[in-house]
Amino acid sequence: MKSKVLAAAAALIIALPLSAAEIPEFIPTISVSGNSEVSMAPDTARFTVTASFLEDTTAEAREKTTEMIADAVSILTEKYGVQEEDLSTEYISAYPEYQYVDNEKILIGQRATQEVDITLRNIDNIGDIYTDLMALDGITLSDVSLDKADKSEEYREARMNAVKDAYEKASSYAEAAGVKVGKILSISDNSSYAAPIYRSANLMLAAADASSAKAAPITYYSNDITVSSSVSIVYAIEQ
User: Fold this and answer.
1) Cα 120 to Cα 46: distance, rounded to the nearest angstrom
2) Is the pTM of this model over 0.90?
3) pLDDT exceeds 60 at position 99
């Protein structure tokens, strides 16, 4: 009997209409996005040194490749003070190489390749470093990617400016509609903070013709890099 009374009471509670205070009130909102980009001077650079040789045997190919990488590393560490922790072997391989002659696959030798990633803490040396490394026959140099070791302040500035940009947009829409911007209801971060904008360094030979390129110094022109931030904000509208 007691259980039947409780069930009836529960059914009565469910059937009762909500009070005015319990009814969710519709909140008019305005949704906007804000964007910002902050430029900064780079203080580090990265590039790759690759040596690759084709010889009759794997041992010969590996020996020449290792010797060439050692020469490059010696220039970097002894002449320009690059630390060992800023050198990283990214790739190393050895394999037979073939060539098709009259539709016949012919072994032409053994190829060995080694690739070392370099991080420079003094970007003022990039031009001189490239001048010296390009004098090594058999070395391939990649483009230079510029970065800044600590971008935390620039990211903070970009985020704050993105929020300000969103508020300015919301204020413009609200003014046009004859209302006011109310409190923030939500903020969504749309940024990818791990991926700032990189620009490759512009390396140019200060030489009039290709024959003098080897002896000519390389002029290095550095560009600023940027970080960006994007947010989506929902504001309440005050009538």
Assistant:
1) 6
2) no
3) yes
196 φψ region: left (φ > 0), alpha (ψ -120 to 50), beta (else): beta
Would you state the structure tokens that stand for residue 11, as one six-digit string?
Answer: 């059914």
Query: 22-43+149-239, what's its fold?
Result: Translation Initiation Factor IF3 (3.30.110)
Provide the residue count of the chain.
Answer: 239
Q: Whose CA is closest to 173, among 233, 112, 214?
A: 233
Q: What CATH architecture does domain 46-147 belong to? A: 2-Layer Sandwich (3.30)
The label of the residue with tokens 């020449």 reads 64
Cβ proximity of 120 and 133 under 8 Å: no
The CB density around residue 146, as the number of other CB atoms within 10 Å, is 22
Which amino acid does the sequence have at 110?
Answer: Q
CA atoms within 13 A on the CB side of 123: 22
Domain definitions of the chain by residue range: 22-43+149-239, 46-147
CB-based contact 32:233 (threshold 8 Å):
yes
**DSSP assignment string, 185-239:** EEEEE---TT--B--B-EEEE--SSGGGTTTSPEEEE---EEEEEEEEEEEEEE-
* Interval 142-162: pLDDT, tens: 888 888 999 999 999 999 999
* Phi, psi (deg, nearest 5) at residue 52: -145, 125
Give the phi and the psi of residue 213 in degrees, each rounded to 5: -65, -35
Name the DSSP letter for residue 82.
-
DSSP β-bridge partners for residue 203: 220
List phi, psi (to 5°) of 181: -80, 125
